[in-house]
Amino acid sequence: MKKQSMWSLRLSTAALVLIPVAVGVNYIGKLLAQLLKLPLWLDSIGTVLAAMLGGPIVGALAGAINNIIYGFTDPISFVYAITSVAIGLAVGILFYKGYISSWGKAIVAGLIIGLVATVISTPLNIGFWGGQTGNVWGDALFAFILANTDSTWLASLLDELVVDVPDKLLVVLISFGIFKGLPRNVVQLYNNNEKIETLD
């Protein structure tokens, strides 16, 4: 027996089913945020959950496929696949290392994921949207900071930060709650953190 590598890509039936389910969960989260007119996106719950269950590569695949599908109706989503891949990778790594094993750790992980998303999305926002996020609260802050500092980079960074950090914090907490509520036999289908039988 040996411990399965964090980077093992075991595309079992369970993993292959998990990816479209994750995309569907992402869509439901995004739709819910829009219906409730929340100043958040909530469109990466499935990606985070897939990374917790299947590891960083499965999480990254779920995130990328999610944005590719969105991209057919909103082409700019193709670009933000980079951010979704980074979220999947970061969550998968943190979970594998045991940094998302309690509510307290999930809060810290959510803040870290929010910062990761902010750092990657800010240059994309500047390149494609003049620095804005399209979020009402964030863009209001963008306009205020830009008017007072004349710094597009600072305005864009803070615009993304005030939306991404609370969004990813809530997403990680929701995902962790779902994970804890899953039946043990479902979690064991993926079992990235435990020892597995091998033939060598």
From TrEMBL:
Keywords: Membrane, Transmembrane, Transmembrane helix. The chain crosses the membrane at residues 40-65, 77-96, 102-120. One of its GO terms (molecular function) is transmembrane transporter activity. The keyword Cytoplasm does not apply. InterPro entries: ECF_trnsprt_substrate-spec (IPR024529). The keyword Signal does not apply. This is Signal transduction histidine kinase LytS.
